[in-house]
Amino acid sequence: ADIDKTVDLGRWPTTQLLNAGDTTALVPFSLRLEGCPPGSVAILFTGTPASDTNLLALDDPAMAQTVAIELRNSDRSRLALGAASPTEEVDANGNVTLNFFANYRALASGVRPGVAKADAIFMINYN
């Protein structure tokens, strides 16, 4: 089961994020849960919100002014910070894997080179 998960969004030239709304390529990641009760599961990510509160703020305050992290559901639609993902059914053994994507998103022009990392907490909703 995944208790701690690191997702490397890669290194990108600042030209990839020239204007507000520009994004980097989506990076897939999954959370595998074991020992779940029967039913379905959804995931809710929380963390420090960016100026666009649907997005996750970067740890570095200077970088956070122009770049944030966007989380996405398995269908690539945006998963807003604090919103529940679509549910997935737990299998007969109590296991379930939930698939997501993440990418950088420019909040404004003027993105500068630097370290762009953030921490999110995931909560499990059992239905």
From TrEMBL:
GO cellular component, one term: pilus
GO annotation terms (biological process): cell adhesion involved in single-species biofilm formation
UniProt-listed SUPFAM superfamilies: Bacterial adhesins (SSF49401)
Classification via Pfam families: Fimbrial
Residues annotated as domain Fimbrial-type adhesion: 4-126
Name listed for the protein in its UniProt record: Fimbria assembly protein
Biological source species: Escherichia coli
Name of the gene: sfmF
